[in-house]
Design goal:
Helix 2 runs antiparallel to helix 3. This protein has three helices and four strands, in the order E-E-H-E-E-H-H.
């Protein structure tokens, strides 16, 4: 049976609580962001992020020793999936708004992609597998 080395990780929040003198809350926030002294930091294990896969290699103890296998999207970090999906949705929205402003109908191909993007967004929210990509010009979506 094949073996795979899987690298998983989670993000651990590190925080500090400091006092800053400033004229406004915004100015105090700027001072806090620009403050590089983290000597009083604390780790927040209770709020750690989800575990997600960051690498896959074929073989035992094979991390970084050969080519990595692509990580299936539903095993990636949710926030990364959401960020990538935001870019996709923004692109589709721009196309559809452009069509509406020009007084033309959105093509069935773009409507199909939009329906797929909705299904993908729902899968991301449910931490489920991504749906297959839509067929282009009637072709096989897995080709």
């Amino acid at each position: 049976m094949p073996q795979f080395t899987i690298e998983t990780t989670y993000h651990l929040p590190v925080f500090r609580q400091s006092t800053y003198s400033a004229d406004t809350p915004e100015a105090a926030c700027r001072l806090a962001i620009e403050d590089n002294d983290w000597s009083g930091q604390k780790e927040d294990y209770e709020s750690s992020g989800e575990s997600h896969v960051t690498g896959i290699w074929e073989g035992a103890e094979a991390a970084y020793l050969g080519p990595a296998i692509p990580v299936p999207p539903h095993f990636r970090e949710s926030v990364q999936r959401q960020a990538a999906h935001f870019e996709l949705m923004l692109g589709l929205l721009k196309i559809m708004v452009g069509d509406a402003q020009a007084g033309r109908s959105t093509s069935p191909e773009w409507l199909g992609k939009a329906e797929w993007a909705i299904a993908l967004g729902e899968a991301i929210l449910e931490s489920a597998r991504d749906p297959g990509e839509p067929a282009v010009d009637g072709g096989d979506p897995d080709a």
